[in-house]
Write a structure and sequence with these properties.
Radius of gyration: 19 Å
Distance between the termini: 29 Å
Number of domains: 2
Structural class: mainly alpha
Strand content: under 5%
Shape: extended
Number of helices: 5
Helix content: 55-70%
């Protein structure tokens, strides 16, 4: 059965393509799923529990909490964006400093900024 999960993902991607869902949107949705599921796992670990030990009802409740937290964070971030001033960077050093600051403020890691970069 575990070998078939990849086939299920393949079918889901093809359904999305059939519905004309943009590839960038699929990527964004995948990141959103990873964030929410990661938060769900963290909450279980804080309780000293494993994913396998949680019931579907418990996981659903945590999933809904993760969604609610993201909506609340998104609303706070939107309020913050009204205060952002956009200007042109005058040098590469200034650009690098801006990227560094944004990564710190928005809690991005390099994999979020450059998802296609792979180490081998």
């Amino acid at each position: 059965m575990e070998d078939e999960v990849g086939d299920l993902f393949f079918v889901l991607v093809n359904i999305a393509r059939y519905l004309s869902v943009d590839a960038d949107q699929l990527y964004a949705d995948h990141r959103k799923f990873r964030r929410r599921f990661g938060w769900l796992e963290e909450q279980l670990l804080k309780q000293g529990r494993s994913l396998e030990a949680a019931s579907l009802d418990e996981m659903e409740a945590l999933w809904q909490q993760a969604k609610t937290r993201e909506v609340a964070k998104s609303e706070r971030d939107c309020a913050r964006t009204e205060q952002i001033i956009i200007r042109k960077c005058e040098s590469i050093d200034e650009f690098k400093a801006c990227v560094s600051l944004q990564k710190e403020v928005w809690n991005f890691d390099d994999a979020t900024w450059f998802p296609c970069v792979c180490s081998s």
